[in-house]
Amino acid sequence: MHTTWFITGASRGLGREWAEAALDRGDHVAATARDVRALEPLSQAYGDAFVPIALDVTDRAAVLGAVEHAVERLGRLDVVVNNAGYGQVGMVEEITEQELREQLDTNFFGTVWVTQAVLPVLRAQGSGRILQVTSEGGVRAFPGFGAYHASKWAVEGLTEALAQEVAPFGVHVTNVEPGPYATGFGPGLRVSAEHPDYAEVRVATAPEFELGDPRATRDALLRIADAPEPPLHVFLGKPLADVEQIYADRLRTWRAWEPVAQEAFGA
Known about the structure:
alpha/beta, 7-stranded parallel sheet, two-stranded parallel ribbon, 9 helices, 9 strands
């Protein structure tokens, strides 16, 4: 039997790669995009195996309708990929309330709405998996990306709890944490108005990213989706060495301050 997929944010980038990878091996895919016209080439190439859906994931009612439509067309959902999102650039002091709310509405709340919409389907089936596309930025942070990190760290925490809640129903959940790739993410960044006092900080802390090939993620994503016991966390790309160092530093700090922590517990 073919696997059925529901993928958000499939107009370009990693979401598009994963939709094509699933379709190429004979699976059926419902994929969403804000502008559904971007999905027309997939409809033309794959016919009835592909279900295009116009969706803004910040609209909770629309998310529920999109999931219902996907189930009507596909009959079931096996793999749900929460991929829709974008990046907000700006020092924490520079980010406006509106920018922060919009970042969280898409990256965090959009993920929550899709997750809540598909869970009744997966629970009734007694099977399924949800792949939450967070980021290397869901477990570490770079200056100038505070709003983006806040949204992705929130998804990571939500998913840690979710995985324990839905395991009894046969549902697996994975935080997929890609490093930087040569997708449309960079050109799609939204940038806050710059405060002049941060000019030197901005230059001194500007990260330099080595960009991976997004097509190289296709097989990896399929292997994660097909795994009998998928991981709760998995990187795509090469973030592990840097993240290992960050976590080692945290452990050293926690251990160094353990006497203070114990004193704070009281008698």
